[in-house]
Amino acid sequence: MSNLALGCTLIFVAVTIVASMWQKLGLEKEVIIGTIRSAVQLLLVGYVLQFVFNTENKAWLVLIICLMLTVASWNAGQRGRGLRGIRWRIAAALTVTEVLTMGLLLGLSIIEPTPQYIIPMSGITIGSAMVVAGLFVNNMKREVQASGGEIEALLALGASTRQAIHTSLKRSVRSSMIPTIDGMKTVGLVQLPGMMTGMIVAGANPVEAVRYQVLIMFALVSSAALTSILLSLLSHRLWFTEDDRLRSIS
Amino acid sequence: MAGAPILEIAALGKILTGPQGEKRELFRNVSVQINTTAVVVLLGASGQGKSTLLRILGRLDRADEGTVRFYGRAAEETLPQEWRKKIAYVAQFAVMLDGTVEDNLRAVSVLHRKPFDSALARELMMKAGLGAMEWSKRAAELSGGEKQRVALIRSLLLEPELLLLDEITASLDTHSKQAVEQLLLDWHKTHGTLMLWVTHDLEQAKLISDDVWYMDEHTLLEASPSSRFFTRPDTRQARRFLQISDETEV
């Protein structure tokens, strides 16, 4: 894409600003900030990736993945305000998911062990796992509020905390995975994924692009399952006090 | 511990915190003990903290001060799960567990991996006026009164040593209420279970109780045998509650 063509894409931003002014939405400032941030962030990432792809030092690769994990854990942890210790549990779930997913992809030689493959695949895996973790925490908050009576009824029957919250955890795992599974069912019919579209636009063979997209979809569904199940295992005590009473979380 | 009271409550207090952080004393300095496996009725006007006291005894809520001992063992010295296996709380508003009536009746045997006593469950259902109920029916579809009785039977199948009953007949019709009273009196006779029963129904209290605890002015004012409480209560507050004039001696 030429610089002129890239510059012309600002017309879409202009359309948004004009629409906002016309309808008095008051979004002009937000749109301008968003435009500048996305352009700067993406350009920076482009240069960082270019550097990492050309360097022999693997520590940069590890550093970038650690950074991705940190930002993703912090962001998903925002959903769990009031739950002390949720952030490091999310970080642990995302890290295990990333390590297992990459371990399988590299161990089975599905992708090449180069930054060009590892970084984009890690980004997609961690990004998706972050969304799943956020959904899981949100769903659990709703579950504990809606099913508090059921959880207490089980505690009153002498159930352990794990037994008492098992159904709520199961429901939350299921509902946090549904968007990923729905995405698998409708991919190609409703939406063309960004990576596949990007490859095709960049001149890759569409069938080759589809093969990578299939790989991504399958990896995403397993990472969604891994993240939500790991998080349910790691976080179940957070919903209870030290003396096994159901904690009230706003 | 040999010679210790069955249940001993010492200087128990509970402070409620409002939405703006304001503190309000619900009750203070509640001290009482039970030495025999009696049926004890807990009386008092609404807002005195009777239900909260029951929930604290069942370790579903926490006291702000004081101690509770069961057979000489302090609550803090016992694992909450072990405590709740011996001391079962039945809530005023019954909550059904996910699944069928049978799933609810089997809950205790599933939770504690012990054989399900189908004959006992059937007998209790019969006595509670639910003999004709299909066990395959979804528990969520039961009426309020049916749920209340199934929840009670579910707790009885735990065979607790102390049963905490929180206005469990408030939503029942006269016939069902009488059936539940008889069921519990029979259970008490055959199993010797200590019962602490909150009710606002004075006729019911007279019928079922061996002893009465009376709460007023945010503390426990009286603990006396039922025959004495209903004829010659010690305190002016109890006489007013029972609408007995100060001069009356029955």
Task: Provide keyphrases for this structure.
A: 250 residues; mainly alpha; B: 250 residues; alpha/beta; Rossmann fold; 10 strands
Q: Can you walk through the features of this model?
A:
- By secondary structure, chain A is mostly helical.
- Chain A has 2 domains: 1-54; 57-239, no CATH class.
- Helix content of chain A is 77%, strand content 0%.
- Chain A has 10 helices and no strands.
- Chain A has helices spanning 3-8, 10-22, 28-54, 59-77, 86-107, 115-146, 148-156, 161-186, 194-201, 206-235.
- The longest helix of chain A has 32 residues, at 115-146.
- Chain B has 250 residues and is an alpha/beta fold.
- Chain B has one domain: Rossmann fold (3-Layer(aba) Sandwich).
- Chain B contains 9 helices and 10 strands.
- Chain B has helices at 50-57, 80-86, 101-111, 118-127, 144-156, 174-191, 202-208, 226-231, 236-241, and strands at 7-17, 23-34, 39-44, 65-70, 73-74, 87-90, 162-166, 194-198, 211-216, 219-225.
- In chain B, the strands form 2 sheets. A 6-stranded mixed sheet of chain B has the order 6-7-8-3-9-10, with helices on both faces. A 4-stranded antiparallel sheet of chain B has the order 2-1-4-5, with helices on one face.
- In chain B, helix 6 links the parallel strand 7 and strand 8 (194-198).
- The longest helix of chain B has 18 residues, at 174-191.
- Chain B starts with 6 loop residues before the first strand and ends in a 9-residue tail after the last helix.
- Chains A and B meet through helix 7 of A and helix 2, strand 6, helix 3 and helix 5 of B.
End-to-end CA span of chain A? 49 Å
Order of helices and strands of chain B: EEEHEEHEHHHEHEHEEHH
This entry's quaternary arrangement is: heterodimer
CATH topology of chain B: Rossmann fold
The CATH superfamily of chain B is identified as: P-loop containing nucleotide triphosphate hydrolases
Using CB atoms under 8 Å apart, which protein chain pair has the greatest interface?
A-B, 18 and 28 residues
Radius of gyration of chain A: 22 Å
Supply the helix-strand structural class of chain A.
Answer: mainly alpha
